[in-house]
Write a structure and sequence with these properties.
The complex is a heterodimer. Chain A has 5 helices and 5 strands, in the order βαβαβαβαβα. Chain A is an alpha/beta fold. In chain A, about 40% of the residues are buried. In chain B, the strands form 7 sheets. A 5-stranded mixed beta sheet of chain B has the order 10-9-11-8-12, with helices on both faces. The chains are: A alpha/beta, B alpha+beta.
């Protein structure tokens, strides 16, 4: 990898965030993970607003992992803001959520999500999923 | 309010005779008919046949004393003198012409234009014209006094003059007789006296004169006169061409009678005395007068008949119209709808009896006043449309019912077209308040159901999501425990165990809250009067642990009213608000909660004010949403405020948040119904 791969994890459940972080660290250690716990913070991070004004501490992510149920601003709103912003729209957004509701899947894709993943209840599968996610988005996938 | 006078505009036309004409038409027809009749009468009366513009030949024959050539060679005699004088007065150029053809033949052959005296026999009128009569004739049989009266089978010889009419009349009565013609009538009598004839047929006037002065050799006492039945009228004869001249001559004769000329002439010929003649002609006049009078009486009777027919027709028309009006009014008054008639100016002419005093007062007013002021334009537009002859769509407007209560009307307006133009408009208003209420209720129900449905959807969605989350955590970190144990990292091991415990607690709390949530919506206990201060203190005691933990000072206002509601539920509201305030104190070094009431437009507003984190204004509405959390790190489940909101709303109150933003603290306000007596 010529340069560092930055990933923005938007997740309100701190425990889940930690699980993702651990799995990623194991499978794709080169990834720099940045975590925010609500929708407003995610937007602030991407727009370098508020506490994220310093670009060194909040590099532009190469991938966004986005939960749907978020405090303050919900995940779908964050997603459509990203996809309607000319500066941000080319960042791949993978929805990672506990919801397997058909409506959520449809609405996420309507808002131009690049992928939709449901958190598996079983940890082994959770681990595999994060592994594959790293393999695909960090290893194989190319984006501008 | 008395019912307005019935107005005849429903069936008036149907109820009347000569319907298509209308009242004016009928009077015109009647007048025209009378004029026509009068004109026909006048024409008959005044029409004068033309008179040839030349000297008129008037015939005479030897028939003394009526007509004969006098000793001076001039035409002379009774009727010659009368007619000559009448002709002179009528300015007719008469040329007397003697003939032996007899009157009828002379006229028919055209030898003469006029004849001074001719017996009016119906068959003659086919060939000649005969004026109105001016003399009458009767005939007698003069026979020896000892001879019995002859019957129809009389077959003796009868003497009479050569006049054709005499033979003709004799034959008509006694077909079996033989004629003995004589030149003059005096010779006919002489023949009876001489026994040469069984009887003489004579004109009665002449016979009377001759019997008064019988010819020599005749004893009048030995003779008797038998008057034959039948009176013959005699007028002036004429060809059809000269008919007008005959009538003109006849018209002059009454004047001759009046001025005595006639009497003088008759006297000269020893017929009657002047007074007799005057009486005869007076009689004639009287008869004519009678005829005229009869005509007038007939006319008056006809007029009277026509007038009473008219009156009867009008009365019948009125009765029919009244019956139609009563039938129609009953129909309209019995209808449950409000029915009104609107004139061309858009004003109410009539309103049905089922309408209220309020609507009845509309008579004479613009019809749109039936509706609420804000909707009058709509109604006025529909009425205008109908008065243009169109059929406007049904409209629904609020108005007042017969008790003066507000209601809704479905209103249809239709043009009333008579004789091809719009005479008025009919308005039918159906009270649809009930339907409107049901519609509103249904819509409210649908709205409520939709809200419930989306809440349920959100609920089940959130529940599945939020319950899954801790399970993933538990499962994930259990797996991690194994690894950290293998790696011998005890710090992380403890950390992960704490995470598992935390997730378990979160789940337990969520389940608790869900259980609590499932209970609201139902009011468990009957509403009671609840002293609010007491309730607040109790709630404070329930969350004492948490308050103490963060050293939160709580101040409760002394004077709080008594409210009405489900005590347990209201306790939950206050408890939730205090808990919520304590939870979001943030980094406040001197946390404080104030609970009290303030007046807002006369209604008390209760508040729970804190000096904690505050809420940005854009999130004020969101905080009451189910499972809605503003802070991901807080331990809450996002149920407390949602629950408080529902309880307040179930009590008919309102709840809202006031905060100027982060760091300014928050005030939660709510309203409740106060107890009726303090």
């Amino acid at each position: 990898m010529a340069r560092a791969f930055d990933l923005l994890l938007v997740e309100d459940d701190a425990d889940h965030a930690e699980l993702v972080r651990r799995c990623l660290a194991e499978h794709v250690p080169a990834v720099g993970m940045h975590h925010v716990s609500d929708g407003q913070a995610a937007l602030d991070y991407l727009q370098r607003a508020g506490p994220f004004a310093n670009p060194a501490g909040s590099p532009r992510p190469d991938l966004i992992l986005l939960d749907l149920r978020l405090p303050l601003v919900d995940g779908l709103t964050v997603l459509s803001r990203i996809k309607s912003s000319p500066e941000l729209m080319d960042i791949p957004v993978v929805v990672l959520t506990t919801s397997d509701a058909e409506r959520d899947v449809a609405r996420a894709y309507e808002a131009h999500a690049n992928s939709y993943l449901v958190k598996p209840m079983d940890f082994a599968r959770f681990d595999t999923m994060v592994h594959d996610l790293g393999l695909y988005w960090v290893g194989w996938n190319r984006h501008p | 309010v008395p019912s307005p006078e019935p107005t005849l505009y429903l069936d008036r036309e149907k109820a009347q005779f000569l319907r298509p004409l209308g009242a004016r038409g009928r009077y015109i027809l009647l007048a025209a008919g009378s004029l026509l009749a009068a004109a026909l009468l006048a024409q008959r009366h005044f029409e004068r046949p033309p008179i040839p513009d030349r000297p008129l030949r008037i015939g005479f024959e030897h028939n003394p004393p009526y007509q004969f050539r006098g000793p001076d060679g001039m035409p002379s005699g009774l009727v010659v003198e009368i007619v000559a004088e009448a002709g002179r007065r009528a300015r007719l150029p008469l040329v007397w012409t003697e003939t032996t053809l007899g009157s009828e033949r002379a006229l028919r052959s055209g030898v003469v234009d006029l004849w001074p005296l001719i017996t009016d026999l119906p068959d003659r009128r086919r060939f000649i014209h005969i004026s109105a009569p001016y003399l009458q004739n009767q005939h007698v049989l003069v026979l020896p006094a000892r001879q019995p009266l002859p019957g129809p089978d009389f077959d003796g010889s009868v003497a009479h003059t050569t006049q054709a009419i005499h033979r003709r009349l004799l034959r008509a009565q006694f077909p079996g007789t033989r004629s003995l013609e004589t030149r003059e009538e005096v010779q006919a009598i002489a023949k009876v006296c001489a026994g040469e004839a069984a009887a003489a047929f004579l004109e009665s006037r002449t016979a009377l004169a001759l019997l008064r002065k019988p010819p020599s050799g005749c004893d009048a006492a030995a003779l008797r006169a038998h008057v034959l039945p039948g009176v013959f009228q005699l007028g002036v004869g004429a060809t059809f061409e000269a008919a007008g001249a005959a009538d003109r001559i006849r018209e002059q004769i009454p004047a001759l009678a009046r001025d005595g000329t006639l009497a003088t002439v008759l006297a000269r010929y020893s017929f009657f005395g002047p007074s007799d003649t005057r009486a005869a002609y007076d009689l004639l006049e009287a008869q004519e007068e009678n005829r005229r009078l009869l005509l007038v009486i007939g006319g008056l009777a006809a007029a009277l008949l026509a007038a009473s027919w008219l009156a009867w027709s009008l009365r019948r028309a009125r009765r029919t119209a009244m019956a139609a009006e009563a039938r129609w009014r009953t129909l309209v008054d019995t209808a449950p709808d409000l029915i009104a008639s609107v004139d061309r100016a858009g004003r109410v002419e009539f309103v049905s009896g089922s309408a209220s005093d309020r609507t009845r007062a509309l008579v004479g007013r613009p019809v749109e006043e039936l509706a609420e002021p804000a909707r009058q334009k709509e109604l006025a537009a529909a009425v205008r449309e109908a008065l243009r002859g169109e059929s406007p769509e049904q409209i629904e407007v609020p108005g007042w019912n017969r008790s003066g209560e507000p209601t809704w009307y479905a209103i249809r307006v239709a043009p009333v077209v008579a004789n091809g133009h719009v005479a008025s408009a009919t308005l039918i208003a159906t009270d649809v308040a009930k339907r409107k209420r049901i519609e509103a209720e249904r819509e409210e129900l649908i709205r409520e159901l939709e809200a419930r449905n989306s809440e349920l959807e959100r609920f089940s969605y959130t529940v599945s999501h939020d319950l899954k989350s801790p399970l993933i955590t538990i499962r994930g970190y259990l797996d991690q425990l194994e690894r950290t144990l293998d790696a011998g990292d005890t710090v992380r091991f403890r950390e992960d165990v704490a995470r598992i415990a935390g997730a378990q607690q979160k789940m337990a709390r969520l389940l608790d809250d869900l259980l609590q949530l499932s209970r609201i919506g139902r009011i468990v206990s009957a509403p009671e009067d609840v002293p609010l201060r007491e309730l607040v203190l109790e709630a404070r005691d329930l969350v004492e642990g948490r308050l103490a933990e963060r050293a939160v000072a709580v101040h409760v206002e002394d004077a709080l009213p008594v409210v009405r509601g489900d005590r347990q539920r209201l306790l939950e509201v206050v408890q939730n608000l205090i808990e919520n305030a304590a939870k979001f104190m943030g980094a406040q070094p001197a946390p404080r909660i104030e609970i009290g009431a303030r007046s807002d437009g006369g209604r008390p507003v209760f508040y729970v004010r804190d000096n904690g984190m505050g809420i940005p204004p854009e999130h004020h509405g969101k905080v009451f949403g189910l499972f809605e959390k503003l802070d991901a790190t807080s331990e809450g489940t996002g149920i407390g405020l949602a629950m408080a909101s529902r309880i307040v709303e179930a009590h008919g109150g309102r709840i809202w948040a006031e905060s100027e933003g982060r760091g300014y603290g928050t005030t939660f306000c709510f309203t409740l119904n106060e107890a009726r007596s303090p």
